[in-house]
Amino acid sequence: MSSQESPVPPTTSDQITTMALEAVGATPNPRTRRIVEALIRHTHDFAREVDLQPGELLYAAEFLKRCGDISDASRHEFILLSDVLGLTMVVDTLAAEVSDGALEPSVLGPFYRSGSPLLPNGADLSRGAEADGVPTHVLGRVLAADGRPVGGAELDVWGTNANGLYENVDPNQPDYNLRGRFHTDDQGRFDFWTVKPVSYPVPVDGPVGDLFAATGRSNMRPAHLHVIASADGYSTVVTEFYTDDDEYLDNDAVFGVKSSLVVHYDWITDEKKVAASPRAQPYWELRRDLVLTPGVRTGVEFTAGREESAR
Ligand SMILES: [Fe+2]
After folding, report:
1. Which residue of 14, 65, 240, 290 is most buried, as measured by CB atoms within 10 A?
2. Residue 33, by phi and psi: left (phi above 0), alpha (psi -120 to 50) or beta?
């Protein structure tokens, strides 16, 4: 450069964004191209908005590395991270096509295990018995929007024991305890026994715990029962039912609560009903019909494993 020429101005961050977008402009798959371009635009704008410092970017990289390091077959820190940022609920809510009055989705969570036993209606999911919690009868019908019963629908349900632990991370519980699948009869009816859900903390011994600490948030989830409802000709719904009197209902660590998913349990003491129940003691009863939305039946592309120490 001669002394007469004007000096070249420094490269701007916007020019780098343009180059990065051009670099992926020939991505053959249009969906991949759309996602990667938006990822570049949004992350670059994010850095500009918060004036992200090099040390903070390295901290973020280390944070994600720690999420990977602590994850294994029974622990999925990236799912937990997505859940506690509310991203999971945004994605699931956007993706769901729900008719008015039909069952809405909620978080799958990181504790779903596929392949739980297919059980006859009336079966008890509590294989650990007394220590699992207070017996609870769940019954209702699976219906179409016009009220017609949906026979042969499948409900895949799971929950924690009274200690707030899922069996796959608790060596004190039998394999697949408090998990099971049921099929509705030709009247759309289902019923099963489990234990009353309790509120529980999401794990904070990993990097997501640091996020909770840094933001001063509660890591509690309100009591809930997980359900995946599926049937031929209907959209599969991954959801949870939330207990109406739970103290964390308005403060869910993963933002899963929707008003249509809040349910009420009745305390049953009627002598005849108690005598006929599996443990012959007073129990909770949840009656809830599920309305499905017409659509495509899909599977769930995730399963947790059972922790080594719990095998
Ligand atoms: Fe859960």
Report:
1. 240
2. alpha
Q: What is the pLDDT of residue 101?
A: 93
Kindly state the DSSP code that residue 202 receives in the 8-state scheme: P
Counting Cβ atoms within 10 Å, is residue 53 exposed (0-12), middle (13-18) or buried (19+)? exposed
Quick one: pLDDT band at residue 68, thresholds 50, 70, 90?
Answer: very high
CB 59 within 8 A of CB 28: no
Cβ atoms of residues 308 and 171 within 8 Å: no
How far apart CA 134 and CA 277 sit, in angstroms, is: 12
Local confidence band at 260 (pLDDT 50, 70, 90 cut-offs): very high
Give me ligand 1 centre to Cα 224, in Å.
Answer: 6
pLDDT at residue number 243: 98
pLDDT of residue 34: 98
Contact between residue 111 and residue 304 where contact means Cβ atoms under 8 Å apart: yes
Residue 250: exposure state from Cβ atoms within 10 A (0-12, 13-18, ≥19): exposed
> For position 302, what pLDDT does the model report?
84
- How far apart (Å, rounded) are the C-alpha atoms in residues 194 and 126? 6
Burial class (CB in 10 A: 0-12, 13-18, 19+), 52: middle
Q: What pLDDT, on the 0 to 100 scale, is given for residue 97?
A: 81
Give the Å distance between the CA of 159 and the centre of ligand 1: 6
